[in-house]
Amino acid sequence: MLPAQGWISLGLAAAIAAVATLLRLQRRRLARLTFTAAACTAPHSAPVPPPLAHADAIGCRHLGLTSNDQQPAHPTMPAPIGVHGNGTEVSLFRLPGHGLALHGEGAVPAARAVLAAVLTTGAADTASTRPVVVTTTDLLGQLLPADVPVVGLDPDGTAYDGERLIVLADTDAAVTHAEEEMISRRRLLDTFDTTTIADVNARSDHAETPPPYVLLIEPATRYAGRVQAIAAHRSALDLHPIVLGLHDGLPTVEITRDGITRSDRPHPLSRVSTLSAEDLAAVLAMLTDAQARPEPGVEFDDPAAAATPTVPTVEPCPVPPENPTALVHLRVLGPVTVTTAAGPVTTGMRNGSYAVLAVLAAHPAGRTLYQLTADLHPDVDPASAVKRVRTDITTARRVLRTASGHEEHMFIVFDPATGRYHLDPQTVTVDLWHMLTAINHATTTDNDDEALAALRRATDLYAGDFAEGHDHPWAVDYATIYRHQILTAYARIAEFLEPDHPDRAVAALERATDLDPVNEELYQRIMRIHGRQQRPDAVRRTLRRLEERLADLVDAEPSQATRRVAERQLLPAASRVGRAS
Question: What is the DSSP code string of 5-54?
Answer without folding.
Answer: SS---HHHHHHHHHHHHHHHHHHHHH----TTSPP-SPPPPPSS-GGGHH
